[in-house]
Amino acid sequence: MTIALVGLDDAVVIVVYAVGIALTKMLLGVETSVSFVFSYPLWEIFGGLGLGGAIGAVISYVTKKMHLTSDHIFVISLAAAILCWGLAEMIEVSAMLTCMALGTAVINLNVQVGNRSNELVDNIMTPIFVLFFAAIGMQMDFSIFHLMWPLIIMYCVGRSIGKITGCSLGGVLSKSEPKIKKYIGFAMLPQAGVAMGLAFLAAQALSGYELGGTVITLATTTTVVFGLISPPLVQYAVKKAGEVNI
User: What global pTM score does this model have?
Assistant: First the structure.
């Protein structure tokens, strides 16, 4: 059986987000107990994984018994993702983890349908990404932009140190080649995708505390910053590692 682990780092980030957003709400004055702060994220995480895995297992089993065209697989894929997201919102578990668990279950239990579904959905992702980032941009609050530079600098510096140090430590623990330990961190600085998605969810979760615009503005600005500085750093890392001759 093929085991799909693509996106495992994203899953870990979503888990950390679930705990972090609960702690943030507690610090902002939401009346709740410490036990609830830690138990609710567990429900969000494992409930989402269970829900997505169960739906994925059912879809994998049913589709094995059917002869499906590409159109059928495409419709089933979209319907399953929408169903997972809707049910996750209904029972208050992590919708992103639910959908990730759905995909993981399908690709491992029905490889043929999983691979074909991935190919078909990829064909429509570009316009969806465009619309998503447009929606994110519409929530930027330029009225607070001039006040956020210290926070933006702190975020960029802290994230860069964490990425580079963490990647180097991972290289040491995995006994990788010296060039991996030294330079892989510089190639891991680009920011987008899940980071922006979680920023969007955090903005919604904290909108009642007038922090939604701050979160979106911070995430968008730092994404632009890393979009500018990451390409030359990636080039530097690849050259120093001796992976290119340019």
Answer: 0.74
